[in-house]
Amino acid sequence: MEQIIYFDLIFVLCLLGIYFLAKKYQLFKNILIAVYLLSTLVYLVWRVGYTLPLNEGILSLIAGILLLVAEVGGCILSLVFYRMFINKNKRPTESLAKLKGQYPTVDIFIATYNEDEMILKRAILAARNLRYPQKEKVNVYVLDDGHREEIKQLAQGLNVHYLDREDHAHAKAGNLNNGLLHSQGELVVTMDADMVPREDFLERTIGYFANENLGFIQTPQTFFNHDPYQFNLFAAENIGNDQDFFMQSIEAQKDLFNATMYVGSNAIFRRQALVDIDGFATGVITEDMATGMLIQAKGWETRFVNENLASGLAPETFGDLIKQRDRWARGNIQVIRKWNPMHLKGLSWMQKVIYMDGIHYWVSGVYKMIFLLAPVLFLLFGIYSLKASLAGILLFWFPSFFASQLAFNVVSEGKQTVLLTNVYETVMAPYMSYAVIGEGLFKAKNKFVVTRKGVSFDKTYYNWHLAMPVLVLLGLTFLAFIKAVLVMSGVIPFAENHNAIYINVFWLGYNLIALILAAFMPFERPRFRKAERFTTDKQVQLVTTNQVIAGQLTDWNEVGAGIVLENQETILPETFDLVVDGYRIRCRATKRQGKVIGLIFEEVSEAAYSYILTQTYALASTSYQAPVKTNRVFRVLGKTMTQHTRRLFQR
User: Fold this and answer.
1) Which residues are bridge partners to 139 per DSSP?
2) How far apart are CA 480 and CA 376, in angstroms?
3) What share of the chain is helix, strand, coil (3-state, %, to 5)?
4) How far does CA 157 lie from the centroid of its chain?
5) Distance in angstroms (rounded) separating the CA atoms of residues 610 and 401
6) Tens digit of pLDDT for each residue in 200-243?
7) In the list 522, 531, 589, 627, which could disulfide-bond 463, CB 3.0-4.6 Å?
8) Other beta carbons less than 10 A from residue 634's beta carbon
């Protein structure tokens, strides 16, 4: 045992040296990846040959095989993941100058079903006001599958095209295909109704189409509100949106293999590429992923433009997040059933592997459930998942585990951590397992469901129905942990060697951290505002009938603003004008505390509204600065528990 500890210590020190060099040099990053994969391969050989519970009964044998399958499945996911990251994507950007003045016609599709008029208005105006050398070549289409008169009037009032249809066949894909039938642009932009393109969206993307074989471009989906992880865990300052790593890192690496995935919005298609596949794919609820794959199978090139060029609304409640991921999971299973990437002619071998990996990812929820339940089954019910000594764990498992932490942290470049990934996977595991098993085995007839956006409510509540699977897992894990502590303390007897307890205590502790945070996710906090505020420091004036008052904006949107007055003694009338950069907005004060006042806008001209958009939602990508997140899970855990405990006592 002493020699094994020395081995682990030397391994850790050597790997730490490689880790710090890997932050700067790609060669050492690849060495770190190789060490991780090699150590994991050695670990799996040991697992297969020496740790299966062959003599502990049929239940233990089944549990052991399931755990091994989960580990092998996770290893396969890691192999594809790290293969994509061996080389950093350094493909050059392209500007409009590449087109040499020959600018294509562009149709912008804003697909909507039941989104709020306020959400649509900002998306439509931002799309209409996009900068482009020949604005007459840009047409905006509102594709309304909700057949709403008020949206028709909104579109007409903003001088954009309005299209609806008699039926709702094939949901969003059918809606987009209807748009193709009634438009003629050489390029087609798809935007979800809540997505607001930045004013330089076209300037930063259309130049790539100088390549006549380019089928589509995907830009990241980013979000200007806080998702349920950030909001319900009081973690907006600590963690980014849970989609950031996929949207901005994984997609960039897929681009190296011409396997960029179309994600349904913020994308630009060459119309001919869509014609070649008979329009947007139908028959599955993830039409976006299928559409991109089919275009690539036709031999078209694709590109990922890794710039924040459009932002929208992330799901705002835990329930909505679950519904969204349930749809994605089921949709991926439907895609493999209808268009198995491995059998799709025209895809390269690596494209097939990457698409299969994307589908396989959704099965990882099942793997996670196995990892969560294995130590519980052993300690509470005596069901083995593996038979291993502490020496074996330290010699074979620990090097693989430690290398995995460092390799992932280097590859993610601070955008994600292993612990944070563990939290995300734990939160989703029960629900994604249900979705994948239900769709895979029973072909559930779930229809396309639009994720709610612009949700606001003023009460704190706990979603007990959704929380129950996580609470059951948390309760069982906690009981197993308590039993392990009592066994190690000699309070209660246990038939097995205490080394097995030590192994499972670490395992349970690792799971408990994620389960505790997962249990807070259904704790919905109030969301009072229907529109997000954006910080600013613009100098403004408040103009009344007899005075002009100087002040400074602190935050604002198209609905209202916060402002700090220069003079605390200033008396304001019921209504007055806010003047900012020459734009005049009629408003009233809603609350005041000393020099700080809150404003609600009552009359906003279209010109002023457009100006506000360019300074907030649609701020040019060259002016926007993304906040840096620490992604420290223990800080999030402490803050979450403190804040929710405080709120409970306040109630």
Assistant:
1) 107
2) 6
3) 50, 15, 35
4) 34
5) 52
6) 999 999 999 999 999 999 999 999 999 999 999 999 888 989 99
7) 522
8) 9
Which residue type, as a one-letter code, is found at position 510? Y
Q: Fold match between 104-316 and 534-615?
A: no
Structure tokens at 398: 């620990």
Which residue in this structure is represented by tokens 């009338």?
573
pLDDT tens-digit map of 69-97: 999 999 999 999 999 999 999 999 999 99
Is residue 243 exposed (0-12), middle (13-18) or buried (19+ Cβ within 10 Å)?
Answer: middle
> Is the pLDDT score of 325 beyond 80?
yes
Length of the chain: 651
pLDDT of residue 444: 63
In which residue are the tokens 């694709």 written? 302
Q: How is domain 104-316 classified at the CATH fold level?
A: Spore Coat Polysaccharide Biosynthesis Protein SpsA; Chain A (3.90.550)
Give the C-alpha separation, 227 to 361, whole Å. 21
Please choose, from the candidates 243, 203, 242, the residue with its C-alpha nearest in 3D space to the C-alpha of residue 220.
243
Q: What is the CATH number of domain 534-615?
A: 2.40.10.220
pLDDT exceeds cutoff 60 at 61: yes
Please tell me the pTM assigned to this model: 0.93
Q: How far is CA 170 from CA 179, 281, 309, 445, in A?
A: 13, 9, 28, 13
Which structure tokens are listed for 455? 């949700």
Alpha helices (runs of H) in 51-116, residue ranges in sequence order: 58-84
